[in-house]
Structure prediction request, 65 residues.
Amino acid sequence: MKAVILVSIGVSALVGVVALLDMVMGLAGQSGMAPFSGQTTMDIMFVVAAGLIGWMGLESLQEQS
Prediction:
C-alpha cells in the first residue's frame, strides 16, 4: 500500500511542476510552448489539486507508520 501512496505523491508532484511551468510560460508570453496552452485558471486548479493530493498522501503515510 505504501508503494501506491508514494506513486500518487510522485505523480501529483509531476503534475504540479508541469502546471507551474505552464503558468510561468503563459504569463511570460510563451503560451505556444506551454504544455496546457497557458490557461492560468486551470494551472492554479492543477497546482492546488496536486498540493492536496500530496498532503493527503503524506498524512496517509504517517498513519501507516
